[in-house]
């Protein structure tokens, strides 16, 4: 299996910097998601790894060999694109076999590899069909098989399920994750979907404005976001301006421990770490319930405290009704200042 190391990789378009100098190491057999909004640089970085974009500076090492300026066909990588990129005039078998023919495999070996690839993606009986005869999910499976038969050291996936409906996307990404684990292939997966990254990645690389904001496991990224951007981008998060004075952050009736210097800060607290009607967590203040949405297993509540809206996840059993004024108490929380975390409390 293989490792990938990016060292001081930079990409400029004239005077515009698309990728600030960044370094990242991906271990043997890891599935790493590059996650960020549009324009964050995640797809550009993936294309640099695959050789479809030329970097401005830096190194791209695969198993210690620098391939930064090698063309795509000379790299031990394979890319699954969002658009499938299948040849419509070819059968499924011919699409998958095409790259193997270019590499000089004989017919017997090509047939064996294609049949193995079709089996991996659950399309054993589809070799004779054309792409137009397949569903969107099946076409993407063919695109994945076409990459896998080349036995790349690094598999690259650029938002491969973005064009599929939610149910099919969920199912296919689980299948791909299982294939990736079975083969042990090192994989870099680009997505702007938080749920997708959280569900498949060994580690997530959160990107913004061409730079890396944080690298960590899905659990670490969710529980301990390192910057205000990560806190606001991953999952639901209340980002509330507060004032710190004499070891406490205050807003309205809320008074929370904060062993940082006095001054303004941003309180970050997840909706599930807020309680309406309970006084058993850190601080509390009177909040008015302005909206309730039934999500089946819980209520998403909007409450107004000190002129600020707070999102609260309330259990179905909670005694909460629209228009009520109830104590709002805080469990786990973080404080940010100057674009970094300065305090964290795990109370609750």
UniProtKB/TrEMBL annotation:
Record GO terms (molecular function): ATP binding
InterPro entries: AAA+_ATPase, ABC_SmlMolc_Importer, ABC_transporter-like_ATP-bd, ABC_transporter-like_CS, Mo/tungstate-bd_C_term_dom, P-loop_NTPase, Transp-assoc_OB_typ2
Coiled coil: none
Domain ABC transporter: start-end pairs: 4-234
Pfam families in the cross-refs: ABC_tran (PF00005), TOBE_2 (PF08402)
Keywords: ATP-binding, Nucleotide-binding, Transport
Family of this protein: Belongs to the ABC transporter superfamily.
Protein name: ABC transporter ATP-binding protein
């Amino acid at each position: 299996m293989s490792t990938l190391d990016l060292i001081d990789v930079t990409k400029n378009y004239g005077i515009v910097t698309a990728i600030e100098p960044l370094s990242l190491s991906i271990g043997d057999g890891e599935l790493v998601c590059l996650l960020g909004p549009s324009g964050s640089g995640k797809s550009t970085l993936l294309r640099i790894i695959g050789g479809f974009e030329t970097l401005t500076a830096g190194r791209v090492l695969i198993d210690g060999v620098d391939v930064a300026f090698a063309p795509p066909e000379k790299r031990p990588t394979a890319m699954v694109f969002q658009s499938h990129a299948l040849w419509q005039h070819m059968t499924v078998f011919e699409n998958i076999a095409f790259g193997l023919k270019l590499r000089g495999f004989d017919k017997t070996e090509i047939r064996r590899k294609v049949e193995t690839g079709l089996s991996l993606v659950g399309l054993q009986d589809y070799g004779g069909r054309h792409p137009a005869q397949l569903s969107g999910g099946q076409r993407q499976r063919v695109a994945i098989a076409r990459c896998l038969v080349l036995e790349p050291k690094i598999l690259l996936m650029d938002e491969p399920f973005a064009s599929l409906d939610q149910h099919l996307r969920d199912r296919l990404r689980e299948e791909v994750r299982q294939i990736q684990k079975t083969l042990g292939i090192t994989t870099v997966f680009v997505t702007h979907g938080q749920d997708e990254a959280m569900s498949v990645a060994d580690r997530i690389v959160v990107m913004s404005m061409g730079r890396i904001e944080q690298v960590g496991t899905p659990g670490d990224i969710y529980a301990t976001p390192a910057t205000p951007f990560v806190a606001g981008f991953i999952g639901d998060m209340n980002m509330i301006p507060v004032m710190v004075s004499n070891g406490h952050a205050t807003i309205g009736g809320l008074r929370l421990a904060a062993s940082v210097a006095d001054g303004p800060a941003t309180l970050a607290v997840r909706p599930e770490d807020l309680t309406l009607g309970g006084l058993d967590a850190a601080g509390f203040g009177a909040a008015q319930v302005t909206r309730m949405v039934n999500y089946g297993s819980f209520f998403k509540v909007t409450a107004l405290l000190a002129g600020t809206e707070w999102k609260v996840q309330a259990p179905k059993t909670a005694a909460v009704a629209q228009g009520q004024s109830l104590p709002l108490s805080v469990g786990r929380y973080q404080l940010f200042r100057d674009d970094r975390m300065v305090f964290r409390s795990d109370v609750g």
